[in-house]
Amino acid sequence: MTTRRCIAPALRVGFLAAETDVISRALSVKYDAGSGALEQMLLAEYCTEHFNQHVETLQGVLRTKCETIMDALAAEFGTTAEYKTPKGGIFIWVTLPDTIDTTELAQVAIAQGVALNPGADWSADPNSGRHSMRLCFGHPTLDEIRKGIAKLADICHEMSGLPERSGNVQRTDA
Question: Domain 62-170, what fold?
């Protein structure tokens, strides 16, 4: 059984407790530049006394952010977006109707300050992911999540006419 713990989203510092021969083999296939010694020392000092409480707090924060993004998706996209509650992590996978290409959506959205990961970039078969997107909720505040999803729904509607309703209000093409 593997247990993964996280200090903060995207902080990639880990450890390996093993015999010297195992560590030397692992180091020979290590492909990144490593993390800085200062970060490792600070993290070791912090984790000695605070790790379990920090993880518990972080899980609560991320749970709230995940609920917020799901609520915002429901309010702004309604049944136009399909998604499931993630079992962990800081991303939610969202599938839109076949008429929406998320690569095009991402280009327009980023120009308006909303970032998303097009599904084609995260799928084994890029064609099957063309209508999906990966949204991160780890870093933004709750307000940024709500506003970002509302803005994304507006952009999506401008491009495709979908979603037809947002915030339980029928959209009009003015």
Answer: Aspartate Aminotransferase, domain 1 (3.90.1150)
